[in-house]
Amino acid sequence: MAQLDDIIAPVGDAFRAFRTLLNETTVSEQPFMRPITRDILRSGGKQMRPLLTLLTAALHGDANDPKVQAGAVLIEMIHWSTLVHDDVIDEAYVRRGQWTPGTLLRSKSAVLVGDYLFSKGLAQASRAGGYGAMRSATRAIELIVDGELRQMEHARRLDNTEETYTDIIRHKTAALIASAAECGVLPAFGDDAEAPQVRDMYRFGELLGLAFQIKDDLLDFGFAEDGSRLKTGKVSCNDLRERKMTLPLIRAMEDLSSGERRTVLKHLRRASERNESVEWLRDFVARSNGAAYSVQIMERYHREAVELLAVYPDSPVRRALEAYAAYVIGRAF
Fold first, then answer.
1. Vertex 300, ends 295 and 303: CA angle to 5°?
2. 222: left (phi > 0), else alpha (psi -120 to 50), else beta?
3. Which of 24, 73, 167, 263 has a CA positioned 20 to 30 A from the CA of residue 118?
């Protein structure tokens, strides 16, 4: 699998410029906010979404375009904002071995921090005249919220199907990654979201987002593609504890009798309080073809995404995008 530095290399200067702009954007006049934004910057992860914005921009034009740079900042700020809000909603205390902002702040303060980050990102895009990015990103937020609400409702009813699951992750996860890809290419086509290249890049990001979430769901069970156990920074089987029916479990339940299905749902209802129910469900999925089937679907999305790049001539940027797609499904974190 390609190293992240190799993926960044074709847009290295633009990526460094983005990070400088991100630091400038997060500076706050409020003393309360300064240590919070500093900590978020330090633990900001790999910044894969804005990197995608810069790569799709470079494929079609200039990744240093101020509108592109502002769009990349907006995407990252929205990502941070949704993470902070998710930590409050999910009562998540640790991510990749670190305390989350939602844990370090009271819930009310954490929500305000999320709102602050979002507003700063929008302001940066507005100053740069990145109105296409603003439209794209606000649409993504609408889809994310809709996906969260659908997931909460189906977790309550325990009635997820594969179709429902796909619809939820298309909204909840893939929408922002699709927007990240779209924001990079929009300035090259006058912010015309209907331009064929813009639509293709949106679809490219959406497919990678779907693959990303399936990979995340596999990792949450603690299983690699060969069924071996993995050590991840996430709490193992956290989705089960929150009664979320993800693709490995949905597939595992597909051919069950009504009595067997009731047994699975009984354990799922108890998973938030009983570790033995979590282990029972994990073993149940491990014995099924749920993980293998999920890998097949993930790889299909990956292939469809890479096929969208075939119309572009070979170049370091195209190869970086292909490596980016491989990185999404090859990660083990």
1. 125
2. left
3. 167
Calpha distance 119→129 (Å, rounded): 15
Distance CA 244, CA 137 (A): 26
Domain boundaries, the chain: 4-330
Give pLDDT tens digits for 272-313: 899 999 999 999 999 999 999 999 999 999 999 999 999 999
Q: What is the pLDDT of residue 230?
A: 64
Least confident span in 172-181, 225-234, 240-249, 267-276 = 225-234
CA 185 centroid distance within chain: 19
Per the CB < 8 A criterion, the answer to whether 173 and 209 are in contact is yes
Dihedral angle sign, alpha carbons of residues 219, 220, 226, 229:
positive
Q: What is the pTM of this model?
A: 0.90
Dihedral pair phi/psi, residue 199, rounded to 5°:
-65, -40
Measure CA of the first residue to CA of the last residue in the chain; give whole Å: 14
- pLDDT over threshold 60, residue 42: yes
Give SS3 for 243.
Answer: coil
Tell me the three state secondary structure of residue 91. Answer: coil
Superfamily of domain 4-330: Farnesyl Diphosphate Synthase (1.10.600.10)
| Mean pLDDT, range 172-191, rounded to an integer | 97
